[in-house]
Amino acid sequence: MRSSGADGAAVGASHTARLGARSLIPLIFLGWSLYGFVLLSQSVLWWVAVDRRPALWFAPVIYAFVIVWTWASLTPAIMWMARRFPLWPRSLRAWTTHAAAALAVTVITALVEIGIGNALPGGTNARLVLTYVDRFDVSFFFYAGTVAFTLAIDHARVARERQLASARLEAELTNAQLRTLRMQIQPHFLFNALNTISSLMQRDTEAADRMISRLGELLRLTLEERDSAESTLRRELEVVRRYAEIEQVRFDEWLTLELAIDDDVLDARVPGMLLQPLIENAIRHGIAPLGRPGRVALRAARDRDELVITVQDDGVGVPAHGVRFGIGLGTTAERLEALYGDRQKLVIEPVDPTGTRVTLRIPLVTAPSRPTHTPTPPPFADAHVVS
After folding, report:
1. I want to staple 21 with a disulfide (CB 3.0 to 4.6 A). Which of 76, 133, 153, 208 is the partner?
2. For residues 314 and 351, is the Cβ–Cβ distance under 8 A?
3. For the residues of 179-227, what is the DSSP string, one character each?
């Protein structure tokens, strides 16, 4: 009794055979027709060599193409046999079945050839045994070639399917990793924002209320694309503006944000929540400890096939012990590595006389153009944000 697994394999093989034979029928007949022209040319050369002419000029054409189209008609059945009884792993039953099928195909083609020879004027009254013996090697070669062709295309199809499945799994794994890393950024930002709100509640409830409102708007923006690994630079700039509104409540006149973004990169694809951690890092580690008004400049431009983003502040600068990646910068670096591999570059360097510059290079990929809503500048744009 056959197991259910074997039944499933047989059904799968039968389904594959039906699909494969149906999709290849035009190519099968085309291939055999080309071989028919080879047979026809041989017949014509033979008639020329013996200085004779056929009783009917079209007789060689009928003879050649009836034979090859007989093979074309048998090819789907041979392909089904190849899939139904695979030769590997080795099976005595499969090899025996194919040997019997090869003999049967040889008999069928020999009968067809004899029938044509007897039907056409000037044909020979060949015997089946003689024709069978004479054509056995050729018929066996055609049968074996068809089986080998079937195994080859099936192997190529399976390899292609495995490659696509592997690519899909790799893409899903990368997206899962990117979503995980992005989820690390959002709680980190939210924790810092709530800390600021908590401190404001003790001294300025109106400012805390404005900050809560702006935080809600920012969270709405980030949640709208929470399932997407990528966004557009235009969208990320809106997130930056909303975030700047929140920080402006905290720093009041002490913070100036400058935006210099080239128009031809606004629709560039970038990782979601890319800019906000960079701006937050510049404000909290550069401007906040400064004790005086500070400036953060965000620039984005195209450099050949790369998008170059720089975030520069005039704050306290890089510590003497070097840069230590916290959650924001560390997670950003990991996401860039997961998404772009060695095609990205993140550089942190000091700026004279004071300050820090973060330079980011990623491949420039532009999103399909579509009507977009230009974000309304924040209320403090004229005084504190230079675009």
Report:
1. 76
2. yes
3. HHHHHHHHHHHHHHHHHHHHHHHTT-HHHHHHHHHHHHHHHHHHHHTTT
* pTM of full prediction above 0.90: no
- The most confident of 114-118, 172-176, 230-234, by mean pLDDT: 230-234
Structure token digits, residue 131: 């024709």
Q: What is the pLDDT of residues 60-104, one digit of tens each?
A: 777 777 888 888 888 888 888 888 888 877 778 888 888 888 888
**Tens-digit pLDDT profile for residues 185-221:** 556 667 777 887 887 787 888 888 888 888 888 777 7
Q: How many residues are there in the chain?
A: 387
> What kind and span of H or E run contains 139?
helix 128-201
Q: What whole-number distance in Å separates Cα of residue 299 and Cα of residue 333? A: 19
Residue pair 308/360 in contact (Cβ under 8 Å)? The answer is: yes
| Cα 335 to Cα 329: distance, rounded to the nearest angstrom | 10
Q: Determine the Cα–Cα distance for residues 208 and 202; give it in Å rounded to an integer.
A: 9
Beta bridge partners of 260: 299
Q: How far apart are CA 304 and CA 197, in angstroms?
A: 43
Cβ atoms of 380 and 386 within 8 Å: the answer is no
